[in-house]
Amino acid sequence: MDPAAIRAQEKDRWNYVAAGWKTWWEVIEGWSQPVSDRLVEMAGVGPGDTVLDIATGAGEPALTAARRVGPAGRVVATDLSGAMMRLAAERAAADGLGNIEFREAGAETLSLPGTTFDAALCRWGLMFMPEPVAALERALAHLGPGGRLAASAWGAAEEVPMISMGRSLFSSLLPPPPDPDIGPFRFAEAGTLEGLLAAAGFDDIEGEPITVTVEFAGMADFIRYRQEVSTQDLALRQNHPPEKVAETWATVAEEAAAYAGPDGRVVIENRALISSGRRAN
After folding, report:
1. pLDDT tens digit string along 32-86?
2. By residue range, what is the domain housing residue 94?
3. β-strand 50-54 against 74-79: which pairing, if any?
4. Alpha-carbon span 245 to 223, nearest angstrom
5. Total count of domains within the chain
6. Does the bond joining 61 to the residue before it have cis omega, within 30 degrees of 0?
7. Could you write out the three-class secondary structure of 219-279?
8. Is residue 178 within 8 Å of 148, Cβ to Cβ?
């Protein structure tokens, strides 16, 4: 499948799950806020800065950056999914953040003539792009001299059980993806994310891991979360009868039981990676 077709498919996929992200927004941002905070720190975002957030999804780390730059600063948040962007705009309005501009645009072809940014951000977006180096090159072109970009990716599948639980089962039940290289664990190998930044022309590159701890009140909440924020449930229902769908999620719940405490709460530690690079003066 060519890159344009993959981008179109990703757009449809994220438009579909936007309703689930709206339902779970507060929970998601509760456990992912430390990643947004660290991205903003590693990109050197400060008061009055102008910041680009690519693949902002439901609005992060754009909202975090908007709070950091303050009323004298500006954030431009871009994403392929119009539905996710509308959710992000709702969140910004609810938080009284008037210094964010939302633009529906793809990262690999991004063009904002005459606009120069002090920093750029991308949280868990590069892994789903058919041409991630092109996206980083476009971000670099929009940075001013000395501007930094910070991006995050997930660790290996075994290090991110929140996402990988049931992975083998789903693979056996669902049609293969059009491009098996695209997915959440794509840049898990040590140094891969830093290599992308180098290939795009960044220098002064650094990287570090960060632990992301998710917590749910009970197993039912965790399974419902998985069903509503990913397209796995839709794909299951498109390819299997209701009883098979229910059986599949019951098997995932059995696997997740290892993370449930005596009080029934489900607590899962996951590993993410953050890298940053600088545009030379």
Report:
1. 999 999 999 999 999 999 999 999 999 999 999 999 999 999 999 999 999 999 9
2. 3-278
3. parallel
4. 12
5. 1
6. yes
7. HHHHHHHHHHHCCHHHHHHHHCCHHHHHHHHHHHHHHHHHHECCCCCEEEEEEEEEEEEEC
8. no
Q: What are phi and psi of 156, to 5 degrees?
A: -70, 160
What the block records as the tokens of 202 is 């960044």
User: Which residue shows structure tokens 């994220």?
Assistant: 14
CATH of the domain at 65: 3.40.50.150
pTM of the model: 0.95
- Nearest of 141, 172, 9 to residue 80 by alpha carbon: 9
Q: Give CA–CA dist 174/184, Å, rounded.
A: 17
Q: Which two tokens stand for residue 117?
A: 């940014």
Q: What is the DSSP string of 70-134?
A: -TT-EEEEEES-HHHHHHHHHHHHHTT--SEEEEE--GGG---TT--EEEEEEES-GGG-S-HHH
